[in-house]
Specification:
This protein is an alpha+beta fold. The chain folds into two domains: about 250 residues, no CATH class; about 60 residues, no CATH class. About 25% of the residues lie in helices and about 25% in strands. It is elongated. The two termini are about 35 Å apart. The mean pLDDT is about 95.
Length: about 325
């Protein structure tokens, strides 16, 4: 029986593990950057670096949901564990205007606790997307425009935010992610910096969804924190890498404990057929969407685990074509 708190505590010490909090279109991510100092032991469920940090304050009522999704690239798959709360318990403040919240007394670092926190007013269901600053010039603009939408025509606040690069602080009922690095945009060459960063994508925000439709979150539950253990085939910068069997095995343990039964059954079913050399034209994929996703990822993983063969290629040709239920490899971006 896996113990959630212990799994998270160990994950916080793993350099290849990423984290996020947010919604569909507004997300804050915490990642370790290769070459930076190794993760340090922290009190509770927390990790903090010079670039950003994360803290999980409570696990009360949490349901962990482990899943793999189909990558658009046929030799890959993605994996994650979502820490979910019942919908009513997950709801945040959903403010839709810039709102001053006062000093951030709960900041991860002592030196940030006197800085002022502002809800950006993105109106997201399970996440309050905030900024934090002690910059007098930025504070003046924010105070003058509190109570207005950042997207209101003629509002200078968004331009001031992009100019001054305040800390971003994303709050959920489970905890927070803080990002100290610059906001991706003109000052960063149009790219998000490596490591902790944020994304706010108005087009996705308009969908008013808590998560991607392809993320298998059970009905009535809302993801409030995402854990992304080291992917066995994808590097930290999105590159292909040599297969890491230990990372693969470690996630299979989480999937067996916290994954969808139909998905796991679909994967095991196709593995059994491949193991017994059953011809592809004699195989029948599962009827459920989750089962078919498990079946397809099972074919991909078999090819990585055992090397390509005529049999596995015939399964891929028959069953793993097209784009049904494939997700971007960075969901919500």
């Amino acid at each position: 029986m896996l113990e959630l708190e212990q799994v998270l505590k160990e994950a916080l010490m793993q350099e290849g593990c990423g984290w996020n909090m947010g919604s569909f279109g507004a997300i804050a991510e915490f990642h370790h950057v290769a070459g930076d100092p190794a993760p340090q032991e922290q009190p509770g469920l927390m990790q903090v670096t010079s670039r950003g940090g994360l803290r999980v304050d409570t696990l009360e009522g949490v349901r962990p949901v482990a899943y793999e999704t189909l990558s658009p690239k046929p030799h890959r798959w993605t994996q994650a564990v979502s820490l979910c709360l019942p919908r009513d318990a997950a709801a945040m403040n959903r403010r839709d205007v810039l709102t001053a919240l006062g000093p951030d007394q709960d900041a991860l670092r002592d030196e940030d606790r006197g800085a002022q926190l502002f809800d950006m007013g993105l109106g997201q269901f399970q996440a309050d997307f905030c900024i934090r600053t002690a910059d007098p010039e930025l504070l003046q603009v924010l105070d003058e425009n509190a109570g207005r939408s950042l997207f209101e025509q003629g509002n200078p606040a968004m331009g001031a935010i992009l100019k001054h690069h305040p800390h971003r602080v994303l709050l959920t009922r489970l905890g927070r992610v803080e990002v100290y690095q610059m906001i991706g945009g003109p000052d960063t060459g149009g790219k998000s910096p490596e490591g902790p960063h944020t994304h706010v994508l108005p087009k996705l925000l308009r969908a008013e969804r808590t998560h991607s439709a392809n993320t298998p979150i059970p009905e009535g539950w809302v993801p409030c924190c995402g854990l992304h253990p080291e992917n066995p085939v994808i590097g930290r910068l999105g590159e292909d890498k040599l297969f890491n069997r230990s990372a693969f095995d470690a996630f299979q343990e989480l999937l067996a404990a916290w994954g969808a039964k139909a998905y796991c059954q679909g994967k095991q079913a196709v593995w059994e057929l491949l193991k017994t050399a059953t011809p592809a034209d004699e195989a029948e994929e599962p009827e459920s969407r989750e089962g078919r996703a498990g079946w397809r990822n099972g074919i991909r993983q078999w090819r990585v685990l055992h090397g390509p063969s005529h049999l596995s290629e015939s399964y891929a040709e028959r069953f793993d074509r097209g784009a049904e239920q494939t997700d971007p490899e960075n969901p919500g971006h």
